[in-house]
Amino acid sequence: MEKLIGYVVLALELYRYVLIARVLMSWVPDVERTSFGRILYKVTEPYLSIFRRIVPPLPLGGGYIDLSPIVAIFAWLFVQSGVVMVLKWLIS
Questions:
Q1: How far is CA 79 from the centre of its chain?
Q2: What own/partner pairs with CB < 8 Å and gap ≥ 24 does 39-42 have?
Q3: Quick one: how far is CA 65 from the chain centroid?
Q4: Helix, strand, or coil here: 47?
Q5: ∠ at Cα 71 (7, 49), nearest 5°?
Q6: Which of 4, 37, 52, 60 is the most exposed, fewest CB within 10 Å of its CB?
Q7: What is the pLDDT of residue 1?
Q8: To which protein family does this belong (predicted)?
């Protein structure tokens, strides 16, 4: 059962890194058009879109800055902690 927790933690960690990669990818204009960019988009957009509906973009000069990915990553950390605590509680 300890291995199960390890696998769950690994999967949650990997998804967090995928989210971070998606955020970094948004800073480079043409990367989203590559096959790697499209895969990252398909994997992360369902989760990130939840936060885009909640957190409005902030006006910055002539454009906007989207803070929803930052909020989404922090929320993911809380989800990860909660899932691990619940799994450990269920095992003990």
A1: 11
A2: none
A3: 17
A4: helix
A5: 85
A6: 60
A7: 73
A8: Belongs to the YggT family.
How do the domains of the chain map onto residue ranges? 2-91
Phi, psi dihedrals of residue 59, rounded to the nearest 5°: -70, 135
Q: Report which residue type is found at 64.
A: Y
**CA gap 50, 37 in Å, rounded:** 20
Q: Which two tokens stand for residue 34?
A: 């590559």
Helical segments of the chain, H only: 2-25, 35-54, 68-91
Residue with tokens 């948004």: 26
Q: How many CB atoms lie within 10 A of CB 44?
A: 20
Mind listing the pLDDT tens digit for each residue in 21-80?
A: 998 998 888 888 899 999 999 999 999 999 999 999 898 888 888 899 999 999 999 999
Residue recorded with tokens 């619940």: 86
Check if the beta carbon of residue 55 is closer than 8 Å to that of residue 67: yes
